[in-house]
Amino acid sequence: MQAMSEEEKQKYQEEKLKLKEVFRDEDVKHFPVIVKASTAGTLETLLQETDKLIKGLYRVNVIDYSVGPITEGDLNNAHQTGAVIFGFDVPCTPVVQRSAEAQGVCVKQHKLIYKYVEDIENYVHDVRREIQEE
To answer: CB under 8 Å to 109, separation ≥6 — which residues?
Structure first.
């Protein structure tokens, strides 16, 4: 496993704080996500893996999903719902990336399905633990 750089650690902490606010506002253990994939087959697999993450203590809610690049429309949707965008082998242009940062939208890119699943599980676990500690 590759260690995270200081910049990645900082971004990870910022993203956890954003998710913490999502949980606090709703007072429900939901984790809203938008899933973007390069192909329909990959998208179907990602959605199946996401469905497996629905457990009694929390729910991963896929609020939108599609095949293709991450767009401004995805950012607007994520900004309005507090969702995190998970892109799987899809492009995210520098313009869209800057717009995401300006809006405070978290965009995560993955190329391995198990990393996608791990990432979602880690976010939810970390945010839930921090809320319980308060």
So the answer is: 87, 88, 90, 92
In a domain, 63, yes or no: yes
- Running DSSP on this structure, what letter comes out for residue 82? T
Range of the domain at 90: 26-128
Whole-angstrom CA distances from 68 to 8, 14, 73, 75, 92 are: 25, 27, 12, 14, 10
CA distance 31 to 128: 10
Distant-in-sequence, close-in-space partners of 92: CB < 8 Å, separation ≥ 6: 69, 70, 100, 107, 109
- Amino acid making up residue 64: D
Per residue in 77-123, pLDDT (tens digit) is 999 988 999 999 999 999 999 999 999 999 999 999 889 888 888 87
- Residue 34 lies inside a defined structural domain of this protein: yes
User: Can you tell me the distance from the alpha carbon of 84 to that of 92, in angstroms, rounded to the nearest whole number?
Assistant: 14
Determine, yes or no, domain membership for 37.
yes
Q: What is the pTM of this model?
A: 0.72
Does residue 11 sit within a domain?
no
What pLDDT, on the 0 to 100 scale, is given for residue 49?
86
